[in-house]
Specification:
The complex is a heterodimer of chains A (530) and B (318). By secondary structure, chain A is of the alpha+beta class. Helix content of chain A is 39%, strand content 18%. The chains are: A alpha+beta (530), B mainly alpha (318).
């Protein structure tokens, strides 16, 4: 991690007096700062051309009862060095205010509002102080992630109204959509301000299905919470459980056996495959091109049945476990996967030809819902959406995990940022996932698939883990508590980052094109609401 | 005796329009399903859907006025009346004295007008959006439709549909001005897709409220009101398909009330209309829906085609 140290040296050179302590946590360089210096340092890390830090995660830990302090941690991904840099700051007892970095680092916008709702800490200088996670019916002063908030208490119902941003003017009217929809979709509210058909403003109002996932993690033991992680967002079972397992394995000092690492990559690619296929079909369906939808749906179903035959779960649940994978695949099963994927790729090639040849479809997808590279960068967008807007980021290549050191993906990057680019990233990734699965099978080492823990972590030790799921970067921070329990688990699904960005992608488009734009992002509501 | 026969013919035409409309909808759905490698619902499914809706209790929003409850009846009645003005299986339809092609167009427009009002009546955002979009489509489709039928009317020298159909039918396949004829047909076909809410203008199968045109106006309807609206939409589709087959290719239609002619005329008509439904099903499977603001361009093209058909008609006659 020489590059990481270089970044630390650079920041220290610029802000010698602001830094109280320099450390490294599981390979991530960490700077402990004075409270008042955070905005200046964050701005420097974000804007300096040699660092270009993109805010990947902002989380808070309530250290009570061991220590009476809240710790804020800012994780930056340095675009130029493909490395992480962590800034941290303490709020000791009684301090409830911290300086907002949102005016400098736009991507902090939702994180800081989330912190205010869940911990009651106030981001001073934040331009938008409305509630985000806690809807207005939550009573005042209820901040569930504080340690003095009992996880099973029933809250009273308060009154209140959320103030949407208003646009005034002749002929401007609002179109409210959701949270209950006509189709089988998760709950989310979209408020359009329109003048005729063009969208002047879109505001998303989510968090209707807050389940208290992070609080629930705190009731679990480190080794027991995999099923909970699998259910954060049902369509990303492998991505979330893998990210959780990796963090716990770091804490427990487990070196996962090579065969298990390969199988994890294989399952992650299987998950990417069936989701991408479904998305390509769904994008076509929203243009009323039902033919492609039907055929993509058929292939997706084939893949899910393959999942079912391999693991007895269509969504690949129960595959990952702390220490490895819960099931091994036999040679016959692997050969079956190979054969099945071979036919699927052939059929998919046929569908792809039809898609590219259909001018009426291309006409709908091109220039629709453009997310410019600049806006994508400002919102720290990554994953499929980012790669379609020219953000060349893929954790499988940049911070390899599981078996991606040995089997490297080809990263598909497009620059136009429209619906078509997002579809093309998916089309390319379907082919690449199939290639990767074939490669993983060929190189699959023999040996055990699970191993036991080496040590028990000290309370307060924590680990960070990142997985490139099919949507994008899934981040988990797991901190150990007393007796092998979880003290804090921060979950970050890429949807939390992309929902604010979709508000920008919709601007200037017409109302009937929004479902198409939304489908090309295909974000999770559950993974966002937590 | 003559009056009796005419009355029976009117009743038969009335029943036929009502009975055949759901079947045509079923055919289109079936074709689409087969092209997607699905088995699809049976051809009689639309009948079952209507029967189910008629049995259900309608729910009425408290913010609606009398327009909301009256609209389904007006839409249904005006559409059926339009269907009675045109020749279906017999070239001289008994009610041809009651109105010509212009009356037919305006009967359909009356239905559309009340549909638009009904969409606005409940005050929901989606209904309003659907209504405003329908208004754009309807105003642009109407002139193209008028012009394209007028191009054929000029050949016959009359705006009375029965006269037009009867004269063309007697020619037995000879088209006087083929280029004009084909262009007017193309214009009429585009108008049909637009007016009846089919792909590429609207998507009758979508659940996405934001993209809807026709369905958005019906969102507040339930029970027998919804059944009437859906049935009327099916009849409107059938009216347009009938116009196409009988105005542009009436060969085989009964030109007299002889029983044999009537039977073959009916059979030929059903086959032709079902064939056209298959064509629509195939088109819906081949194309994506147009961006909303491209719809005026498509309808503009239909208008130009119809206009060219008129010009060709005059120039070719010298």
């Amino acid at each position: 991690m020489n590059d990481g140290r270089g970044a630390v040296e650079q920041v220290r050179g610029a802000f010698a007096r602001a830094i109280m302590e320099i450390g490294v946590v599981h390979g991530v360089p960490m700077l402990r700062l004075r409270t008042q210096d955070v905005p200046a340092v964050a701005r420097y890390v974000h804007t300096d051309p040699g660092l270009r830090g993109s805010l990947s995660l902002l989380w808070v830990v309530d250290h009570r009862p061991r220590e009476a302090r809240h710790e804020l941690c800012y994780l930056f991904t340095l675009a130029e060095r493909k490395d992480w840099l962590l800034l941290s700051v303490d709020l000791t007892q009684g301090e409830r205010e911290f300086a907002s970095i949102t005016p400098m680092v736009h991507a902090a916008k939702w994180y800081e509002r989330e912190i205010r709702d869940l911990f009651g800490l106030i981001p001073v200088g934040h331009p938008d102080m409305r509630r985000l996670v806690r809807h207005e019916h939550w009573p005042k002063g209820s901040h569930p992630l504080n340690k003095d908030f009992a996880w099973d208490q029933v809250l009273e119902r308060a009154q209140g109204e959320y103030a949407f941003r208003k646009i005034h003017g002749e002929g401007v009217f609002e179109v409210p959509v959701g949270p209950i929809h006509a189709g089988i979709i998760e709950p989310g509210h979209f408020r359009f301000s329109v003048a005729g058909e063009p969208i002047l403003q879109l505001e998303v109002r989510h968090f209707w299905k807050h389940r208290g996932i992070e609080k629930l993690f705190e009731q679990q033991r480190l080794t027991d919470a995999v099923p909970l992680a699998e259910r954060v967002s049902g369509d990303t079972s492998v991505g979330h459980s893998l990210a959780y397992c990796q963090a716990v394995e770091t804490l427990l000092g487990i070196a996962v056996p090579p065969r298990a690492r390969y199988l994890r990559s294989l399952f992650l690619e299987l998950e990417r495959l069936h989701n991408h296929l479904g998305d390509v079909g769904a994008i076509c369906n929203d243009t009323a091109y039902a033919l492609a939808h039907a055929h993509c749906g058929r292939l997706k179903e084939q893949l899910m049945q393959l999942n079912d035959r391999l693991t007895e779960s269509r969504f690949l649940r129960g595959v990952n476990t702390v220490g490895g994978v819960a099931m091994d695949l036999s040679g016959a099963q692997l050969a079956h996967v190979d054969a099945e994927l071979h036919t699927i790729e052939q059929e998919f090639g046929g569908i792809e030809k039809i898609l590219f040849a259909n001018a009426s479809l291309t006409e709908r997808l091109e220039n629709t819902g453009v997310l410019s590279e600049r806006i994508a960068w400002d919102h720290a967008v990554m994953g499929v959406v980012g790669r379609a807007s020219g953000i060349d980021r893929d954790l499988r290549r940049d911070r390899p995990f599981a078996a991606y050191h040995e089997c490297q993906p080809k990263v598909a990057v497009y620059r136009y940022g429209d619906v078509r680019a997002r579809m093309r990233v998916r089309l390319d990734e379907v082919h690449d996932s199939i290639r990767l699965i074939h490669a993983l099978r060929r190189q699959l080492p023999m040996g055990p698939v699970i191993t036991g823990p080496v040590k028990t972590p000290e309370p307060g030790q924590w680990a960070l883990s990142a997985v490139e799921g099919w949507r994008g970067e899934i981040l988990y921070v797991v901190m150990a508590g007393e007796e092998g329990r979880i003290h804090r688990c921060k979950v970050r699904d890429p949807s939390f980052v992309h929902w604010p960005a979709i508000q920008w992608a919709a601007l200037g488009n017409i109302v009937p094109d929004f479902p198409l734009i939304n489908k090309s992002f295909n974000l999770s509501y559950a993974g966002n609401d937590l | 005796m003559y009056a009796m026969v005419q009355l029976v013919l009117i009743v038969v035409q009335f029943v036929m329009l009502l009975a055949l409309a759901p079947f045509i909808v079923g055919v289109i759905r079936k074709v689409k399903a087969r092209l997607q490698c699905r088995r699809g619902a049976g051809l009689l499914q639309p009948y079952a859907d209507l029967a189910k809706l008629f049995r259900k209790q309608p729910v009425r929003s408290s913010t609606t006025s009398w327009i909301f409850t009256a609209a389904p009846y007006i839409v249904f009645a005006s559409t059926v009346a339009a269907g009675l003005l045109m020749p279906v299986f017999l070239s001289h339809t008994p009610l041809n004295f009651a109105g010509n092609i212009i009356a037919l167009v305006y009967l359909l427009a009356l239905g559309t007008f009340f549909l638009i009002l009904a969409g606005l009546d409940a005050g929901s955002a989606f209904g309003g959006m659907g209504s405003s979009r329908e208004a754009i489509v309807a105003t642009l489709a109407e002139p193209a439709m008028m012009l394209s039928i007028l191009a054929i009317a000029l050949t016959a020298g009359s705006t009375n549909l029965s006269t037009i159909v009867h004269q063309s039918a007697l020619l037995e396949g000879v088209v006087l001005a083929p280029p004009a004829h084909l262009m007017a047909l193309a214009a009429m076909f585009i108008v049909t897709l637009a007016e009846t809410g089919r792909v590429p203008v609207d998507n009758p199968a979508t659940h996405l409220e934001l993209t809807m045109i026709h369905e958005a106006m019906l969102l507040e309807y339930s029970g027998r009101y919804l059944a009437l609206m859906e049935w009327a939409a099916g009849i409107k589709l059938l009216v347009f398909l009938t116009l196409i087959v009988n105005v542009f290719a009436p060969w085989g239609i009964a030109t007299s009330v002889a029983p044999l002619a009537l039977v073959t005329g009916t059979a030929v008509y059903v086959v032709k209309v079902a064939g056209l439904a298959v064509v629509i099903g195939v088109i819906e499977s081949m194309f994506a829906k147009l961006r909303l603001f491209r719809v005026p361009e498509l309808l503009g093209a239909a208008f130009i085609l119809a206009l060219l058909a008129l010009v060709f008609f005059y120039t070719l006659r010298g």
